[in-house]
Amino acid sequence: MNAPRETRPVLDVSGLPDIALGPADIMWWGTLGFVVIEGWTLVLCAVVYLYLTQNFQAWPPQGTPRPSLLVPSIQMGLMLLSLPLITWVQQAARRFELRPVKVGLAIASVLNLAFVLLRCWELLRSLNVKWDTNAYGSAQWLILTMHGTLLLVEVVEVAGTALIFWFGAAEEKHFSDVYDVAFYWQFMIIAWIPLYVLSYWLPRWL
User: Fold this and answer.
1) pLDDT value at residue 157
2) SS (H, E, C) 164-178
3) Contact 121, 133 (CB under 8 A)
4) Where are the domains of the chain?
5) Domain 68-205 falls under CATH 3.40.640.10
6) How far is CA 64 from CA 53, 100, 130, in A?
7) Which residues are CB-contacts of 67 (< 8 A; sequence separation ≥ 6)?
8) Of 6, 8, 38, 120, which one's alpha carbon is 20 to 30 angstroms from that of 31?
C-alpha cells in the first residue's frame, strides 16, 4: 500500500506587483538596517563627546579656539533646503515619472558633492583644532568624520543612480532604488541636525 503523499501549504502570489517601493520592498528594509546601524554609531559618537565635556572645566579646553560658524551653518542650511528636493524626487519615483527623477538626481548629485567638499573645509578650517590636539579635538573630528562617511557613501550612490537614469537603460525597478536613496538621504540630513548643535553651538554654551 502506497504511503499518502505529503501535502505542503502553498500561497498564490501571482497577484502581487513585480515592482514595490518603500516598506513593501525588501531592499527598503535593508536600507533601514543601515540606518539603524549607522544611526546608533552616531549616537555613540555623541555620547563620547558629551562624556568628555564632563572631564573639563571649560569646553573647548582653555587655550583651544572655538569652531567657526559660517561654513558649517551654510552647510546646515543647504542640507535643510535639500529635503524638499529629495522628497519631491522620492514622490516622482513613486509615480514612475522619468523626467523629474532624472533632473532631481542630477541636482542632488551636485548638492551631495558640495556637502562632501564643505565637510572637508569644516574639518580643516572651521573646527580650528587638530584631531590629536586634545580630547576635544578628537571628539570633534570623530563626529564630523563619521557623519562625513555617510555623505561620501551617499554621493557615490546618488551619482551612480543618476548615471543609470541619464545614460543607462533605466527600468521600473530602478525607481525603487531612487525611493531608497531618498530615504537614506533624509536620514543623513536629519541625523546631522543634533550633531551640528553639539559640534558648533555647545562649545559656545558651556
Assistant:
1) 96
2) HHHHCCCCHHHHHHH
3) no
4) 68-205
5) no
6) 14, 47, 10
7) 126, 127, 128, 129, 140, 199, 200, 203
8) 120
